[in-house]
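Pasting as-is:
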Amino acid sequence: MLATFEPRLVSVGRISGSFGSRYFLLMAGAGLDANIVYEVSAGLKNAAGKLAYWASGLLRFFKRVEQLEVGVDGQVHRCGFALISRVRNYGGDLEIASGASLHGNHFEVVLFEGSNPLRYAWYMLNVAAKRVQRLRGVRVLSAHQVQVLTAAAVQIDGEYLGRQPVSIEIVPGALQLLLPPKTR
């Protein structure tokens, strides 16, 4: 089957901060999800895989969600979790950024408002039901450039990068992938 695959150029994200610049294929997250990534126990992750992230997330439901400011194509928004995504699925199974695609030249940015941890439990229930983008307190935007303006926790593709302001941008046609011919 591999011989039938076609080479296609896809855009990637580039994140820049005090660490320099890094590239990512799937997504960047700031705020709540990056704090969860930071707090995941390595031993539990090795033993339980994805369940370790859920365990870390459940512990966060007893803490107020820290707020951050995010600039999306020049407009500033306040939220507790910002997902800057190139793909629809989050964590493999959950669909949050339903308009995102590796074949596009933009990010789908999903901003979750509020600091009450129970509100995020409600958001996650609606993620599971594929209704999150219609909820009050959730804003979905398309962007080529995003800035995390606050010194917030940041992660890319599930790897914690630290607490700092960052700039995130699309790099068009930066990576060539072999994809099945019917993939659009």
